[in-house]
Amino acid sequence: MADTDILETQTAAASSVAGIDQSVGDFKYDVKYDFDAGTGLSERTIRYISDVKKEAPWIREFRLNALKTFLAKPLPTHWATRDLENLNFDKIRYYLSQGTKPKRTWDEVPADIKKTFERLGIPEQERKFLAGVEAQFDSEAAYSNIKEVVSKQGVIFVNSSEALRTHPEIFRKWFGKVIPTGDNKFSALNSAVFSGGSFIYVPPGVKVAHPLQAYFRINAENFGQFERTLIIVDEGSELTYMEGCTAPKFSTSTLHSAVVELVALKGAKIQYITVQNWAPNVYNLVTKRGLAHEEAEIKWIDCNIGSRLTMKYPGVVLKGRKSRGEVLSIALANDGQHQDTGAKMVHAADETTSSIVAKSISVGQGRSTYRGLVHIPRRLKGCKNNTECDALLINTNSRTDTYPAITVRGQQHAVQHEASVSKVSEEMIFYMQSRGLTEAQAMSLAVNGFVNDLVRQFPMEYSVELKRLIDLEMESSVG
Amino acid sequence: MAETGKSACAPQNLSALRYPTSEIQMSALPDIQTAAPTGAFTPDVFASHLAGLGHLPQWWLDRKREAWNRFSALPLPQRTDELWRFSSVQGIRLERAHLSAVPGQALALRPTPLDFAQSASLTFTNNRALPAGSLPSDLREKGVIFCPLEEALTQHADLFRQHFMAQPVNLGSEKFAALNAALTTSGAFLYVPRGVEIAPPFVAAHVASGEGAAVFPHTIVVLEDNAKAILVESFSSPESSPASGHFAAGQNDLFAGPGSQLTYVGAQDWSRDALAFQLNSTVVQRDARVLSLNIHLGGRQSRHESHSRLQGPGAHSEMLALTVAHGAQEFDQRTLQSHQAPHTSSNLLYKNALLDQARTIFSGLIIVDPDAQKTDAYQSNRNLLLSDDAEANSLPGLEIQANDVRCSHGATSSHVDEEQMFYLESRGIPPVVARELLVFGFFEEVLNKLENEELHATLRELIQTKFKHQTP
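Output (structure tokens, whole complex):
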């Protein structure tokens, strides 16, 4: 693997925190893969993946059944965009890796892959503020490490393939329980070909002080990344998890279809932060759901900037009494992009509460969509939901949609939904321009103000970079 | 033109229209998925329907044939249809209904007279217009037309053809719109010429009577430039028998020309076992204002679709609805506010009070076209849940393709406010009365938007009676 050529599609701007600046991710190194499942999807592909990973028979069965479900399910175009029809499942490469065992130190990581992550600033961040990092390159994690003080607390942080080997008992107990294979066509696809992703277990009473981070990188063309993440936080524990993602810009489409399952046991708290900045040729079709037990709290902070089409509705099943679910969502859709995002809150116990705050910005011909579901079935009492969706339209031809679905049964609940659509006020822009700002600067400031109350809830390093990215996106949007 | 009633269909061979009862008994009713999509409305039924209409113009019969073919070709709604999300589609069965014979006594049936001053009224029982008095001479002199459908299509053919189903139905019930067009023989046609303003409401009352009676009301209102009028449409059944099996597929085309002001009230109080569809299509032109208020009280399963098209600057549409849902009733309301021109505004407020095991579905959408800048649109659905088994579904949607707009929507589902209850009780008002007062207050917000006081009072009483009747 020494003979790597460096192919740079674009000179990137100064280094920044992972997963934020579009141009930072837009480069690619030519990498030789030792394992390649070839193009297209069949039982053979699945057997190949399973063999490479030396998996137990039950997991191989699970994959093969999932393939059947995937093939049987139609594309959900009766409600979703027809752009999905442009995906060609026979032209995708489903598995590419240089081996299944991640390295514990950056020195051991093959030079070509290491260069990618260094350029994205991952090792630097790890030193600065993270408790552990997993870096996935195409199908497998190239690097995975957790700080000693955290692992001494009994926290397990490995990639999903490793977890299957080393912790099958905990893994199997929760795997596929929050999101069953047949939940939707893409969760079935992921269940058939999944590879990589994180497995985290936090034992009872442990508060992990610093965030754990995973970084997902697609390097190969015509590739599909299908990571599978399972996080279990035991009674009274707390965890913050962050994920970032980038890919170089190819002329052909790339598919990213992850499944993320969270389990918060009694009194546990999970905060899951995503900053999605895929290249504009990536279909990002992700299923994310958490299961909150009694008095547990699950909070999704979901930020979508990149991709061609994102369909992602993080959800919480409020299974235990007094559990709480929260989704904070920011989406920015520029020319050629469709951010179809939202949230699902399924109340299944008394006195459960949920909150959804979604803000979207449509720039140029970009289209942002909020799609939400709030469900309160019968025989419950004291459930509350509050949903707010605000959309900002920058240009005359920008587009936004809102499609919530709210079901409430019984008279002991309080549910409210509000949505509004607006543009940046001309007076505000005029005022700022009269103070010497350019129109672009003024627009940027207004947009940053629009999302400010949400961005403030991000960890510092992320919020600073998000602001910078919005500046970048807005520069070209006016005039 | 004032001579009404007699112009309705020639005597029909009524027994031939019935679906042979023996056949129904012999074969078990097929499952919804395998059932013929036309149910009891077989080609034979349609053929004999047409046979009875030989006196009507050929173009009308051709339109009916086209509509019939559309109806037969379209499938029944499926559970996976996005436009039927949350609807109990399994409850939509067309096997029981038939184009009813009109029993002798039914012909004389008139709905309880509505207690307010009226310009004129028309009554239709089982698709037939009852004899009505002539239109007051002052209205006739002004050029106002108010007559049954079949009279309009023969005597005012141009006007009629211009407006009859001029806008496509596109909120999911295309099949039932086609059925209505194929079988309709009843409904009112109201035309108000340029600059004519008429204060007292016009009334069109529809009655379904007899087991399995199927009715297809179709009403058209045309207001020319700067005209002003009110039309009240009522839908009712004399019998409260729990197994009436009534079927209704109604439709109306409301056209508000430039600068006109139209108030439309639909009061639906079909029998408790009815399956009912009512499809509203409203066109609002430059500087016109339309207020439509739909009151939903009756039916086992009732679907209402309302599409308002704002086609000229300054157009405004006020879309209101009140529902009292009890027992196992299901009310399914779908709305669309289409802003097709700049500087248009719309305001939707749909309120549902739910008791027992009732279900409601509100699915609304605001569409702002790419060049409809300066749109101001609002959409609000308020559900008042008054029992532990009632279920309210809300799907308030927006599709915005212009940036200089003010669009918002809100949906709430809640119970009677504890604090307000406490306040009333602290003033010595018994809990039962306090609750009733708060529920009536919930309805008043909508009814207050009516300018006509008498009409307001009549509708208030209709709703309150229904509500009191249902709560112990």
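Residues 252 and 266 of chain B are 10 Å apart (CA to CA).
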